[in-house]
Amino acid sequence: MTDVRIATYNVHRCRGMDRRVAPARIVEVLRDVEADVIALQEVIGAGPAAAGQAEEIGAGLGMGWVMNCVRTLRQHQFGNVVLSRHPIVHHSQYDLSWRTCEPRACQRVDLEIAPGRTLHVYNVHLGTAVLERRYQAPRLASYVHDRRVTGPKIILGDFNEWMRGLATSLLSEKLNSVDLRNFLKRKRTYPGLFPILHLDHIYYAGKIEVVGIELPRTRLSLVASDHLPLVADVRIG
Questions:
Q1: What is the pLDDT of residues 39-72, one digit of tens each?
Q2: Which residues does 212 contact at the CB level (< 8 Å), separation at least 6?
Q3: Across the chain, where does the E strand assignment appear?
Q4: How far apart are CA 144 and CA 131, in angstroms?
Q5: CA dihedral defined by 46, 52, 57, 60, rounded to 10 degrees?
Q6: Do residues 71 and 102 lie in contact, with contact meaning Cβ atoms separated by under 8 Å?
Q7: Stretch (H or E) spanning 135
Q8: With 50 as the cut, is the pLDDT of residue 196 above it?
Q9: Do residues 93 and 103 make contact, with C-beta atoms less than 8 angstroms apart?
Q10: Is the entire prediction scored with pTM above 0.85?
Q11: For residue 219, what is the DSSP state?
């Protein structure tokens, strides 16, 4: 058995509820979380003349990382990032873009959590439109259920599901869903200052036991982004 502490966090371009852009503040929030694996959404990457937030966060935490660029933002890469204290042995992405909506993708990162043992992490940021998510949910489920990819899998991120809709229902049918009600009195993750919506989710497949869930509500985490980090302690068989 291997214990892994994993987190998902939409950092909102490191722009806080006070409208300050402060990657160092995100680093401090994540340092307190002490996760082994972190899935971030809405991260600004490198540009033609400067490094990006991904580099700063990775360096600040002393973690390896890979970025999945889904589009450019003012000539900088923009997308999802997975940071890990475990060796990263594979990195790929699956396109989830729909029509003329903002480009979306699922980032897959394979981690060697122990000699000869691999954990597949799927970092997700679905669209804001209902029809967009109806298109994305079955495709995401098919990518995760690819029989060529064996072993335990964790699917986490910002699913932009304001209420239990098609995406949440479909993924809950196909995968094991972490029910925050079993672990938390407060389960809302957005917006950060006064969380009223549960947009961030964690699903899993394979021999995984969810040991605990945390939703860090510190003075800093409540203003650092418009989401709160969602943290899971899992035991992988």
A1: 999 999 999 888 899 999 999 999 999 999 999 9
A2: 183, 232, 233
A3: 2-10, 37-44, 64-73, 76-84, 88-95, 105-114, 117-125, 153-158, 176-177, 200-205, 208-214, 230-236
A4: 21
A5: 100
A6: yes
A7: helix 130-144
A8: no
A9: no
A10: yes
A11: T
